[in-house]
Design brief:
- The complex is a heterodimer.
- By secondary structure, chain A is mainly β.
- Chain A contains no helices and nine strands.
- In chain A, the strands form two sheets. Chain A has a six-stranded mixed beta sheet with strand order 2-9-8-4-5-6, with no helix packed on it.
- Chain A is globular and about 40 Å long.
- The model of chain A has no long low-confidence stretch (mean pLDDT 96).
- Chain B is mainly β.
- Helices cover 0% and strands 55% of the residues of chain B.
- In chain B, strands 2, 4, 5, 6, 9, 10 and 11 form a seven-stranded mixed beta sheet that branches. Chain B has a four-stranded antiparallel beta sheet with strand order 1-3-8-7, with no helix packed on it.
- In chain B, a hairpin with a 2-residue loop joins strand 9 (92-102) and strand 10.
- Chain B is globular, with a radius of gyration of 14 Å.
- The chains are: A mainly beta, B mainly beta.
- Chains A and B meet through strand 4 and strand 5 of A and strand 5, strand 9 and strand 10 of B.
């Protein structure tokens, strides 16, 4: 089973700033099979990024994903108030289970 | 519009059985895996397993194998998550989600609203 480690656990930033979230996997993730999700309190998760760098339908271009192998990054440029949430990465390149990271909480500073 | 609508919140006692549901609409139900994800109170997301509605091919996480059963009734576009004997530790929010991708290499693109299961004596 591939273990995903997200850092930092909590990120405190102000609207307008840039956020950089990290996801490291215990084994290389083939074909960049990595996704990012956003979850707000009381809501279901929402897909942001798949294939490490492809934005899902309707996701603003201030969200971008990058990386390969074992190191992946979600970048949010110019934070908007609605971006403060918990973010999860997930790998789907190995045989199941397709594990999630433990999450990064992005909070308003 | 793709929608996954889950059944309502449940309160059960330890040892009870339970089956929660997830009804898909707005797409060809038999063409996409449906997966289940657990979120315990205040915790992160845990991948439980998925099922292919067309042939009921099912894969479980080792952590959940033998603890739950994933079922589907493709005639009514509905997937299920079932317990035969609930424990207090099953208290959680459970999400179903549609998978998009190639075979088992698929991510969750649409999510249900979640079903809260509370197990307490």
């Amino acid at each position: 089973e591939i273990v995903l480690t997200q850092s930092p656990g909590t990120l405190s930033l102000s609207p307008g700033e840039r956020a950089t979230l990290s996801c490291r996997t215990s084994q290389s993730v083939s074909s960049r099979y990595l996704a990012w999700y956003q979850q707000k309190p009381g809501q279901a998760p929402r897909l942001l990024i798949y294939g490490a760098s492809s934005r899902a339908t309707g996701i603003p271009d201030r969200f971008s994903g990058s990386g390969s192998g074992t190191d992946f990054t979600l970048t949010i440029t110019r934070l908007e108030p609605e971006d403060f949430a918990v973010y999860y990465c997930q790998q789907y390149g190995s045989s199941p289970p397709h594990t999630f990271g433990q999450g990064t909480k992005l909070e308003i500073k | 519009e793709v929608q996954l609508v889950q059944s309502g919140a449940e309160v059960k006692k330890p040892g009870n059985s339970l089956k929660i549901s997830c009804k898909g609409s707005g797409y060809k139900f038999t063409s996409h895996y449906i997966g289940w994800v657990r979120q315990m109170p205040g915790k992160g997301l845990e991948w439980m397993g998925f099922i292919y509605p067309d042939d009921s091919d099912t894969t479980y996480s080792p952590s959940f194998q033998g603890q739950v059963t994933i079922l589907v009734d493709k005639s009514i576009s509905t997937a299920y998550l079932q317990w035969s004997s609930l424990k207090a530790s099953d208290t959680a929010m459970y999400y179903c989600a549609r998978l998009l991708g190639a075979g088992h290499h698929a991510f969750f693109d649409y999510w249900g609203q979640g079903t809260l299961v509370t197990v307490s004596s």
